[in-house]
């Protein structure tokens, strides 16, 4: 039996079918002023996958259109774009209060034989050698900013100091992440949890490049779009290493890229996201 926090998180991804191709997503109980983007992306992926008979998700491309209301459920309308022999394509629109807040296009593919290669995983400490973020003293001004993540059964371990502590500028943000308990063998569920987790730290990676703490300065931040490519099946209940960097920022927008590796060094997914960052101008 899974712990209550993880059970609540899994309930978040157990969408209610209310009509053909229409699903309702439950709310995540937290104190955020708007719905976390990773939640909407994960739920939309589950909605799409519920309409697919074969293959696993290999790519998704999403746009965040409006802030989500955390006090209301979200409706997901799935458009069955194409059912092919090798590829299946879906489009999903997330709706609240009669308006689209998010769109997702995703593709599913039955694995075939072909060429195999990958970039190596960076040489980093094993997660067992790193402290849990819950063991790192919180900043007295901001508290423990990732408490809602831990409450719902996700564990993060930063290779360097976490973003709420003082640290120098760096090209990379690196951490290990996982769900604390086994969640079964449903590949769609694992992909949805990885999608959720992949959105947790990407915008902060832009700030890391400038040595700015994600909690130490007044600014507005939001995800604009989010893209993922799943190269191999990824298990969310085993450690995944997340290597992230931001190659460019301009015009209040910044780009982040990430790679997710399994503990044995296998590259399982690649991520790209553009974020909006409006820093408060003094005076």
Summed up:
The chain has helices at residues 4-12, 37-49, 147-151, 187-198, 202-209, and strands at 16-19, 22-25, 56-64, 74-83, 87-96, 99-109, 154-158, 172-179, 219-230, 240-250, 253-262, 267-279.
Structure overview:
The chain is α+β, with helices and mostly antiparallel strands and 283 residues long. The protein has a single domain (4-112, 125-279), classed as Acyl-CoA thioesterase, double hotdog domain (Porin, Beta Barrel). 17% of the residues lie in helices and 38% in strands. It contains five helices and twelve strands. A twelve-stranded antiparallel sheet has the order 1-2-4-5-6-3-9-12-11-10-8-7. Strand 5 (87-96) and strand 6 (99-109) form a beta hairpin. Helix 2 runs antiparallel to helix 4 (187-198). The model has no long low-confidence stretch (mean pLDDT 89).
Shape: globular
Helix content: 10-25%
Number of DSSP helical runs: 5
CATH class: Mainly Beta
Number of domains as seen in the coordinates: 1
Order of helices and strands: HEEHEEEEHEEHHEEEE
Q: What distance separates the N and C termini?
A: 54 Å
How big is the Rg? Answer: 18 Å
Low-confidence stretches: none
């Amino acid at each position: 039996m899974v712990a209550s926090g993880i059970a609540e998180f899994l309930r978040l991804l157990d969408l209610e079918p209310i009509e053909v191709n229409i699903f309702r997503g439950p709310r995540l109980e937290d104190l955020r002023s708007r719905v976390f983007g990773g939640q909407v992306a994960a739920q939309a992926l589950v909605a799409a996958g519920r309409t697919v008979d074969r293959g696993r998700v290999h790519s998704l491309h999403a746009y965040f259109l409006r802030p989500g209301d955390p006090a209301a459920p979200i409706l997901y309308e799935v458009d069955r774009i194409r059912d092919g022999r090798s590829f299946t394509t879906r489009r999903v629109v997330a709706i609240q209060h009669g308006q689209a807040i998010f769109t997702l296009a995703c593709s599913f593919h039955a694995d075939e034989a072909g060429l195999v290669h990958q970039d190596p995983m960076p040489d980093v400490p094993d997660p067992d050698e790193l402290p849990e973020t819950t063991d790192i003293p919180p900043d007295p001004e901001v508290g423990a900013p990732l408490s809602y993540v831990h409450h719902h059964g996700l564990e993060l371990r930063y290779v360097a100091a976490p973003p709420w502590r003082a640290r120098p500028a760096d090209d990379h943000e690196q951490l290990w992440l996982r769900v604390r308990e086994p969640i079964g063998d449903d590949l769609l569920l694992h992909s949805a949890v990885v999608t959720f987790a992949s959105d947790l730290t990407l915008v902060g990676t832009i700030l890391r490049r400038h040595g700015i703490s994600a909690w130490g300065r007044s600014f507005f931040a939001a995800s604009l779009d989010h893209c993922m490519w799943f190269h191999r099946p990824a298990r969310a209940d085993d450690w995944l290493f997340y290597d992230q960097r931001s190659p460019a920022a301009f015009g209040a927008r910044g780009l982040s890229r990430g790679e997710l590796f399994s503990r044995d060094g296998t590259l399982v997914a690649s991520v790209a996201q553009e974020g909006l960052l409006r820093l408060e101008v003094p005076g």
